[in-house]
Each structure stands twice: as structure tokens, then as C-alpha cells.
């Protein structure tokens, strides 16, 4: 996702400096051009050769290193950078940056950068909580830096408290959030549903399905990376909550309906990717049902059709997308659902197709709209999410254009 992007990774003299090696490796796996700049103190914790082997680039430390191309190194690197992150960032380097002190390669380069800049503090708890450090971090925020709050835990110095460098996966997600995708959904509010619902039979048993939530989580994650304000209403899954997304955990279909309907009016786009139970037990046993020689029958009743309710209560300009998982007659059934539920698009897939369905990291989806049908090739669920969002944004744009044309016609008519 970072192909063609240049990332400056600043490493300072913190005991957590060794973690920056894994972060550099993760960035390379995202195909970023990683330029590591170390302070001299950082080189006491981890050798520059480590970063050079991982990134394939010279690790910069000395501002006056003569072994460089004929250009002002810190200025040319600052111009080329798409993002800069200091991880870990010591109190000393934070103080320098907050007051414009540029006395080494790292601070000089960052002062010349106009790209997004992230700071991940890592230090002793009392140093981090010191009012001076907090004032310096606040100053950096005012100057446009984004501070990634440290986590709480047992520190190398023996103390327990705030000051641990966040996991490298979180640091990477913060960077992806900044520069991975164009922010073409900035200002939009999006609600996504994901995962299965569970309908209780008794206190220990329930009716559910095989949904893992991966498609819905990919959609929520991609919306966030494209700048949207995202709410994810999710049944129980084994997935981590996507970064920067408002999570609303639910269990049953009724809980999901109540959570979605309460928020629907405020949303610009709603994507119903959850596998919601169509039926639930008409009665829930108060105690665990015991085995007997008799056959057990459970009377079922319909759950509320969330997508149909959304189609009937949608506000003007709102874009709705549903999902259809079929085992036969995919397109025919999806077109029926599109018309019946009064939505803008159905993303349909067949669970019998290799690479599609529950639990996979890939999907094979057909996008069905009022204007036509488009079959997508086998691709990752993150890529499928991107295709779905592109189509929904195109629908939204056409809808706004039609509304504008209608307003112009009304104005002309009134003038006549």
C-alpha cells in the first residue's frame, strides 16, 4: 500500500530503539522507500548496519558525512519524503523539535519537512508525565505533528506506567492512515455492519453462521484510510478493531437493528456487510435444555429485516449497499434483493466459488446496481473493499448531479 512512497524513520536514543528494526521491515513489506535517520545516542542501542540491511538504504547519522551525492542531503530527503515518523522519540528530541533546535541530521531534516510528521514518545513514566514534556508535545501538536500516545505497561527501568512504545503494528497503521490512500471520503460519515449475529436458544446455545467479519472489517478499515468518519457495528469476531473506527459491539439481530437504526439518519453511506440471522427462536429457554429421548423442535420467528428498514427510511442523498451471499442463481437473486430492499447496490458472492465466502482473505464479488452488473476478479478483501467504495462514491456523485439538475429545473420553472 506504500508503493512509491518515501518514509523517513527517525530513531532516537531510547531502549525501545530495537523495535524500530521491525517497523522498518514492516514498511519495506509495504513496498515503501524507507530512509532511516538515527541520532548518535540511538547507535548505542542498535547498529546502523541493521537498518541498512533491512531497508537497502544508507542509514544517516552525521549531518556532515562526506559520503553522499552532490546535494544538501537533509533538504533533498525532506523534499522527497511523503511521511516522517520518529519512533521511538526521547524527551530530548521532542524538546528540540518543539523549540526548532536543529543540531543533528534528524532534527535538521524534520525541520525542513513539510510532509505529515508523527511522533511516538517512549521514555520513563515520570519523564513522559513531566509538565515540560507535556508542554513540548502540545507544542508539536500545534505545529502540525501527530503524537501517537505511548501505551501503559512495565518499562525497562522497572517502573510501571505510561511510556512504552506502542506496538509496531499500531505505528504502521497510523502511517497507513496518513498516506496509504487518497482522502476522497473526507467529511463523509459511513456506517458498516460486520460479522455474525447469535440468536439464543437457551443460556448456553445459539443459532449463528460461519461469518468471520473479515469483509466488513476490510470495508471499515478502507473507509477510514480514505478519510471517512466510520462507525462499525459488529457481531462477535476474532478480529482486532480497525484503527480509528468507532466500534459498536452487538450480539443478536435485534441488537444490530437497534444500533443501526439509531444511527442511520446521520450517515452518508451505509454498508450492510454483516451476516444477520433471518430467524431466531420464538422463545428462549430460561435454563439449559436437557437431552431426552424425544425429538426437539424449536419454533422460529422472523428477525427484523435491517436492510429493508433502511431502504424504507433512507434520507435524501443517502447511499445504501447490501450484501448477498448465495449458492445458486447469484445475479438473479441479487437483482431481486436490490429492487425489493430499495438500495443502491448489492455486493453478491457465491460461497461455492473457490476463494470466496466465509473465513477467506480473498473474495469474488459481483456488484449489482440499477445501471448494470460488474463482476470482480478474485482479489483480497481489502481490494474488494476499494472497488465497492469506488462504485458507491460514483453512485453518490451521480445522485448529487441529478439533484442539482432537478433544482435548476425548479428554479427555471419558477422564474417563468
CATH topology of the largest domain: Rossmann fold
In CATH, the architecture of the largest domain is 3-Layer(aba) Sandwich
Distance between the termini: 54 Å
Give the amount of beta strand, in percent: 15-25%
CATH H-tier superfamily of the largest domain: CoaB-like
Task: Tell me the number of strands.
Answer: 21
The level of helicity is 25-40%
How is the largest sheet built, in terms of strand order? Answer: 12-11-8-13-16-17-19-20
How many structural domains?
2
Shape: elongated
**What is the C-level CATH assignment of the largest domain?**
Alpha Beta
Could you characterize what this model shows?
The protein contains 13 helices and 21 strands. By secondary structure, the chain is of the alpha/beta class. The chain has two domains: 6-179, 3-Layer(aba) Sandwich (Rossmann fold); 189-284 and 298-404, CoaB-like (Rossmann fold). The strands form six sheets. Strands 12-11-8-13-16-17-19-20 form an eight-stranded mixed sheet, sandwiched between helices. α1 packs parallel to α2 and α3 (73-80) crosses α5.
Short description:
The protein is α/β, with parallel strands linked by helices. It has helices at residues 19-29, 48-55, 73-80, 91-98, 105-112, 125-129, 131-142, 168-179, 214-225, 253-263, 306-313, 330-341, 381-415; strands at residues 6-11, 33-38, 83-89, 117-121, 146-147, 151-154, 160-164, 189-194, 199-200, 206-207, 229-234, 246-249, 269-272, 279-281, 300-302, 319-326, 345-350, 362-363, 366-369, 372-375, 379-380. A hairpin with a 2-residue loop joins β19 (366-369) and β20.
